[in-house]
Amino acid sequence: MQVTKKPKENSASLIRRFTQRVRESRILLNAKKSRFYDQGLSRNRRRKNALERVKNRAIKVRLKKMGKI
Fold first, then answer.
1. What is the pLDDT of residue 37?
2. What's the pLDDT at 14?
3. What would the mean pLDDT of 14-20 be, rounded to a whole number?
4. Same domain, 32 and 56
5. Full domain range(s) for residue 48
6. What is the pLDDT of residue 54?
7. Domains: count for the chain
8. Do 39 and 48 touch, CB atoms closer than 8 A?
9. In the predicted model, is pLDDT for residue 69 greater than 90?
10. Are the C-beta atoms of residues 5 and 14 closer than 8 Å to each other?
């Protein structure tokens, strides 16, 4: 956003006009919305993580049956 000072305009009204323009453009609103956005994992990555969990669980069960845990 850019605002130029009009002749005989004081700095308070210039700042007020600038903040009003920023509010109307919704720049800050969109920035605050996307600030903590978490995109999440892709389908392949979730599947890979699930397979790793299943494999680790099976290893843990096997070791527990053998008495090593």
1. 86
2. 95
3. 95
4. no
5. 38-69
6. 98
7. 2
8. no
9. no
10. yes
Compute CA distances 38 → 26, 33, 56, whole Å.
21, 11, 27
Count Cα atoms within 13 angstroms, Cβ side, for 57: 6
Residues with Cβ within 8 Å of residue 68, at least 6 apart in sequence: none
> pLDDT of 23-67, one tens digit each?
999 999 999 988 888 889 999 999 999 999 999 999 999 999 999
Written as one string, the DSSP assignment of 35-61 is TT------HHHHHHHHHHHHHHHHHHH
Do 19 and 46 lie in a common domain?
Answer: no
CA distances from 14 to 4, 8, 20, 22, 26 (A): 8, 11, 10, 12, 19
Q: Which residue has the tokens 């599947």?
A: 47
CB atoms within 10 A of CB 17: 15
Contact in structure between 69 and 63 (CB atoms under 8 Å): yes
